[in-house]
Every structure is written in C-alpha cells, then in structure tokens.
Amino acid sequence: GIPATASARGTGIPFGAAIQNEYFDDLGYRQLFTGECDLVMPMNELKFALVQPERGQFDFSRADRLLAFADANGQSARGTTFVWWSTNPPWLEAIEDPLDLERALVEHIERVADHCKGRLTSWDVVNEVVAHDPQEHRGPLRDTFWLRRLGPRHIPVAFQAAARADPTARLVLNDYDLEFRGPRFDQRRAIVLSIVRQLQKADIRIDAVGIQGHLYAHQEIDVEALARFGADLKALGVGLLATELDVIDFQVRGGPAEIDAAASRVVGDFLDGLMGGQRPETVITWGLTDRYNWVEDVMPRSDGAPCRPLPFDADLRPKDWYGMLRRRL
Ligand code: XIL
Q: Example GO molecular function term (predicted)?
C-alpha cells in the first residue's frame, strides 16, 4: 500500500477523484484514493434514483460508506447532484402536477443536503442544464424532464432549496464542453455566465461553476476563452472547479505512448486555461485508474485497445500527465 506518488497530498489546490462504491473492495483501488487524494467524491452514490428510489424512501448506505472513508482519511468530500436529466427515478418522472413536482424536488434537496451537512464542501446543485448545442436548439437550456415540467425556474428553485438546507456547502452549477474552441463552446460558456447573472439578480446564492473537463484528446482547448471564462466568473464573485477531469482518446491513433502524449497535451492546455482566469477551488478526476472508467463504456476505441482516460493506468502506474498536474496544483 505505498502511494504511487510519495507525499502527493496536502499542498496548494486540493486534488480529488471520484470514487465508486462497487469497486471499494479492490484494495489497490482504495489505497490509491487514500494515498493520492485531498478530496474524494462519490461518483454516483448521491444521484437522485440511488438516494430516493421510491418517494420518501431514502438510502444513504452507499454514500455514507464512501463519506466515512473520506472522513477516516482526513479527506474532504463533495456531492453530485440534485438536478440532472439522467438519474431520475420512475416515480419522480411520473409526477404530472408541477406544484407536486416542485415539492418533491425541494423535499429531496432538503433531506439529502441535511443528511450530508458538515461532510461536503460543495454540491453540484444542477448538472448539465445548458443546451448541448445551443445553435441547433430552441433555447439556451437543455431539453430535459425538469425543463419541460417545471420550466427554467427549476434552477433557482434548486439553488434556493440547497442554500436553505446547507448554508455552508458551496453551491455549484456543473456542466461539460466549456473548454474547447468554437462557436458552440463560446455559446455554452455565455449561457453559463447568463444563468449565474440571473441567479445573482434574483438574490439566489451560487458560489461556483464546475467545469466537468471530460477532455476530447482530438479537440482543441481554447486556452484564452477558458481563462476569460474564469476571469468573468471571478468578476461576478463566483469560483471555479474542475470536477470530472479525464481524457477521451477514441480519436487518437497509436498505442499507449501516443495516447498518453496526447493526454499530456490536452490536460496541459486545459490547466493553462483553468488557471489563467482564477485559481480553481479543486481539481477532480473522474476516477483514478483506467481499471474502472466510464469512457470505455460510452466512447470505446475503434481499435479495441483499452482506453486510457485517467491519471493511473490499469496496473496503477501513474501517467506523466498526473505528475504534471500535481506539480501545478
Ligand atoms: C457517469 C458515471 O461515471 C457512470 O458510472 C454512471 O453510470 C453514469 O454517470 N457527466 C456527469 C457524470 O455529470 O455524472 C457522469 O458520470 C459522466 C458524465
């Protein structure tokens, strides 16, 4: 159980990673989190359907196990998420009456935030609410169950409930595709800024924006635009986090060496942009080892080789870019 990177913990900007209950019994996996992370984050265990599978029936067992682990290791933790298009239980999506639905949302936030109170430094209050491609889309917001049933006000409703339920956790709007070059990405950044301004105008607390950072190795990071985005948020008094960093390599030709070189490049550019506008509150990778990663499931490589999205390979050996990342935090 020797950490792969000696004394990696505890300096500068906190480094964290998303951890999964289902792999917790893999000792090497677990020890990697102990050795490397200032912060851990339950990857799925606080999502809606897992926490409240039936109305009024809450199950915190998986999340509590991970939060107890963090606590025992002296690590901080953060939570995701109250509002997402993806993990709604069937009972929730069956609610037709907007008032009843709003009540269900607020009750969920109150119960979950209260249960975790004092143990999480921040919450993703809403996740992926920006339209995937605003140019092709009718409005700035993603077409989701929440938007259809409650309208745009589900966003302020969620932030307001979260602020009331947990006055100390930082409240975060979390989204993806905020770092690349091109009009679609410019628009997505602008939409995030406008949501922040609208919440502030309504006197509703939003503390930070989470950039997921699922980096396509073949896509160009707009370093200047990302830095400007961070500076614009700073001017609004709003912080910045990288919440789900990993490298999606299905377009990279070659073997592990080529893939890892591409990863170093894209992560380096990302950090240039991320650090260029304001100091991020934390940088979190979406897992730690390639042994368990979501990219393999959703964006596998066409050559059939295992993808290499995370800081440590499947044998728990650190990539060069991990050393680079840690030196920069
Ligand atoms: C993913 C998890 O990694 C998977 O284990 C799960 O099956 C689905 O969700 N953007 C997000 C994350 O906001 O919550 C997603 O996590 C990955 C994409």
A: endo-1,4-beta-xylanase activity
- Pocket flag, ligand 1, residue 48 (CB < 6 Å): no
Select from 67, 173, 82 the least CA-distant residue to 120.
67
Calculate what percentage of the chain has a pLDDT beyond 90. 95
DSSP string over 3-42 = -SSTT-SSSSSPEEEEE-GGGTT-HHHHHHHHHH-SEEEE
- Among 41, 88, 172, 244, name the best residue to mutate to test ligand 1's pocket (greatest count of ligand atoms within 8 A of Cβ): 244
CA of 91 to the centre of ligand 1 (A): 21
Q: 58-77, pLDDT tens digit by residue?
A: 999 999 999 999 999 999 99
When pLDDT is averaged across residues 261-270 and rounded to a whole number, the result is 98
Q: CA 150, 155, 157, 162 torsion: positive or negative? A: positive
User: Rounded to whole angstroms, how far apart are CA atoms 291 and 94?
Assistant: 37
Mean pLDDT value of segment 268-282: 98
- Residues 200-214 have pLDDT tens digits of 999 999 999 999 999
Query: What domains, with CATH codes, occur in the chain?
Result: 15-328 (3.20.20.80)
CB atoms within 10 A of CB 310: 25
Helix (H) or strand (E) holding 284: strand 283-285
Position 324 confidence tier, pLDDT thresholds 50, 70, 90: very high
Please report which helix (H) or strand (E) contains residue 123, including its range.
strand 122-127
Question: What is the 8-class DSSP label of residue 119?
Answer: T
Q: How far apart are the C-alpha atoms of 270 and 263, rounded to whole Å?
A: 10
How far is the centre of ligand 1, averaged over its atoms, from the C-alpha of 44 (Å)? 7
Q: Whose CA is nearest to atom 17 of ligand 1?
A: 294
For residue 130, count CB atoms less than 10 angstroms from its CB and return exposed for 0-12, middle for 13-18, buried for 19 or more: buried
Ligand 1 binding pocket includes 243 (Cβ within 6 Å)? no
